[in-house]
Amino acid sequence: MIPNITRGSRMAGLMVYLVSTDADKTKNAHTDPHLVAGDAAIMAWYDDGVLDKDDAAAIAKHLDQPRKAFGVEVLQKDFRWDPVTKERVPNGHKQADVWHCSLSLRAEEGALTDQQWGDIANDFVDAMGFTEASGKAQCRWVAINHGTSENGNHHIHIAVSLVREDGTKASTHGDYAKSQKTCRALEAKYGLEELSSVHATRGYDRAEKATAARDQREMHRASLARKLRASATASGSEAEFVRRARDTGLLVRPRYAKDTTDVIVGYSVAERPKPGERPIWFGGGTLATDLRLGELRREWADTPQAATEAAAEWNAAARNKRKANTRGPEKAALDPQLWVDYTRNATELADRLRNIPRDDHATWAKAARDVSGAFAAWSHRLEATPGPLAATAAELARTAQLRTPREHNKPVPLPSIAGAAMLFMAASSKNKTAAQTALMVQLINTAFAVYEMHQQAGRAREAQRILAVVETQLAPFTATMPKPTPVGAEPQPGVAAAAPPRAVDIARRGMAPIRPGSVVPTTPTPATPARTAPPARRNAGPGLDR
What we know:
By secondary structure, this protein is an alpha+beta fold. It is 42% helix and 13% strand. The chain starts with a strand and ends in a 37-residue tail after the last helix.
């Protein structure tokens, strides 16, 4: 169940919207707006019949009565966008006495009865502190069932006046986090599908989807996130990340600290527009939590020289000038031996992951991000339009995004496969090779480890999504790959090549042993992967475990 909170000051306007059935005036067609819950007076006056505009006006008057009677103002900080500093700046305060929250189910969950929605709404406003259950005077409130949206989501809307019946103000401090926590508890209580309290990804609004469908293209944020994750995973420094992002066709601009031109505190990106069109910019953090600049910097060396080089690349990107360093590591020729080394690293990573506790969310997120980055880089190299590699990268990226990253400890050191993304991006040809197949086998093995972690943690939805994309989209793709050669082994002459097995099946057969204390069931015949000390990455900069 997904909560979505907004604030405003026009209770009458909100109520008219909630009962409207005019598709031209609403984001979704409301076919049967009716009450499912509310304060005692509301429920005594109205039944479950369809509400009209007169009902909306009467309900709004009732909800707003304490605020008007006591002459109470409820204010909220306001901000405006400063085009000069490229940031939000304080703009005084605004009226915000109306608290509005929608509660939506996924389309796959179907619909609830009015009784169920009514019980959920009552429990929800109790938990949020708006009723007498808080030990204070109650706020007046109402819950309206809109039925099913055009996207298939059954949902209700809850409207609350933030002026209590004794004239005091209700606190909304931490209401976003509290609503999420409350929804997780209600999911368990009412037997609904339980969303992850650990991972969170931002959805796409109706306008984005409609525009992408109209233009017959992928949504901008999905494309941007994949290219950025590939670039970040393949990079050994912040400066290299900026250059690689520009190489994928992205426009990049920094966000500077106040009164500086060399201290970068954030960034935004856009797809390069067609002639005559304007770019559509997105902040890195709005694309994914693991793409915030602060999160990306955790992987790179923090030195004065690195900061200077990064600032030079950011400034060049902001002005759409030539790169400050045109001979960076991304331009260097790669040793073919690196394919073997990173394949062995990926083998060891899959082995080690199965000993990581499932509640070590930071470590699992880091591993998922690296594997997602590798698939994203390969997608950039091979797929003219998003295909199975892009889909696999997107599903693994969900595990890389923690709802509250600061609450988790640092990830434990593990064999790094970040260089796998670098190898795929640097591939000189779009032809598939046996070396790519061998590395892909171990990347799929690692993806299965992430799948098993979610399964054992009881996150069935996340587990099923990963399994589905690997089995239904990635498996047919792997059938087109050359037959893999065992790491370090020479091909056997004269051996007839029968129908090559899928890399998915090879990865499953080659899964690393499950050790005591692991989160997955033990297997009867463990296989021990080869272990070799990895060389320094590209013979420059930090090693594999960067």
